[in-house]
Design a protein that fits this description.
single chain, about 280 residues, alpha+beta, 7-stranded mixed beta sheet, two-stranded antiparallel sheet, 9 helices, about 35% helix, nucleus, Ribonuclease H2 subunit B, RNase_H2_suB, Rnh202_N, RNase_H2_suB_wHTH
Length: about 280
């Protein structure tokens, strides 16, 4: 994963983000806990929607910004993220369940108070409109109380997986040729980036009759491949001079560089979230 730079002024970065519907308003970059790693992570909150920062970079590249050349050819891109993913760890901790005790009902403002992370208070509105999908709700004297419900979380996760599975065949012939089980695995691998393995991934794989070990190993392979593709390649002595034999064809002209394969990357590897601390 790439590291999120805390100082956005230097060096410059190219970010593709939605414009606010109101020209006088600006989005807020919120510091929240990442739902899987628990690390401090930046999210863009704009027009009542939460966006995560993604990162993509070719091995070589720069950006021309007016008369300025930005040496960092990385592309930072915002995409909408379901706030329930971000809130799951907070909701789980808030119910304070112990063994067979299902835990306590809490008011939303209590749940969203996380010491050191005032950004959660900005999510009050969208949280109130979404968390009933994964929580039991009780209303006392016109005041609502919430408690995370594992069965609701599992149903919601299954819905997410099946929605992803339906989208995959539209992305290309490689996905269209895959079987039902392979599509489910790919969907769960993407969902896993926002979940703790215990208990959610374990429950999800059990419900979908998938081998959790295969999911975990597939993620490790994908991440290793991504890091290998994007790590800088050291210049070998034979490549330093144009006149060396390894860089010339049999006719004495510089040899053509082999073209990179196109349309061969997995869609999951095209973008990576940006976090404050890389892993």
């Amino acid at each position: 994963m790439a590291s999120w730079c805390g100082d956005l002024a230097a060096p410059p970065r190219l970010l593709v983000a939605p414009r606010p519907s109101d020209g006088n308003c600006q989005g807020n970059v919120l510091s929240l806990r990442h739902p899987r790693s628990d690390e401090e992570t930046g999210y863009l909150f704009i027009d009542g929607q939460l966006h995560e920062f993604n990162w993509f970079k070719e091995r070589f590249g720069s950006w021309f910004l007016g008369d300025y050349v930005c040496e960092d050819g990385s592309l930072y891109y915002c995409t909408v993220v379901d706030p329930i993913f971000i809130l799951l760890p907070i909701l789980k901790a808030a119910r304070m369940s112990n063994g067979k005790d299902p835990g306590k009902f809490r008011q939303l403002d209590e749940i969203l108070y996380v010491e050191g992370y005032p950004g959660y208070q900005h999510l009050m509105g969208i949280a109130g409109n979404h968390i009933d999908l994964v929580c039991e709700v009780k209303e006392v004297a016109n005041v609502k109380f919430f408690r995370l419900d594992d069965s609701k979380v599992l149903s919601w996760l299954c819905c997410k997986v099946h929605n992803l599975k339906e989208v995959f065949p539209k992305l290309g012939k490689n996905y269209a040729a895959q079987g039902e089980k392979e599509l489910l695995k790919d969907a769960v691998q993407i969902i896993r980036e926002y979940l703790n393995d215990e208990p959610w991934l374990t429950l999800l794989c059990k419900k979908l009759q998938l081998d959790i070990k295969e999911i975990i190993e597939a993620n490790k392979t994908s991440e290793a491949s991504f890091c290998a593709e994007n790590s800088p390649v050291p210049l070998r002595p034979a490549e330093e001079k144009l006149g060396s034999s390894s860089t010339r064809s049999s006719k004495g002209r510089p040899a053509k560089k082999q073209k990179a394969e196109v349309e061969s990357k997995n869609i999951k590897d095209m973008f990576r979230r940006v976090t404050r601390k890389g892993t």
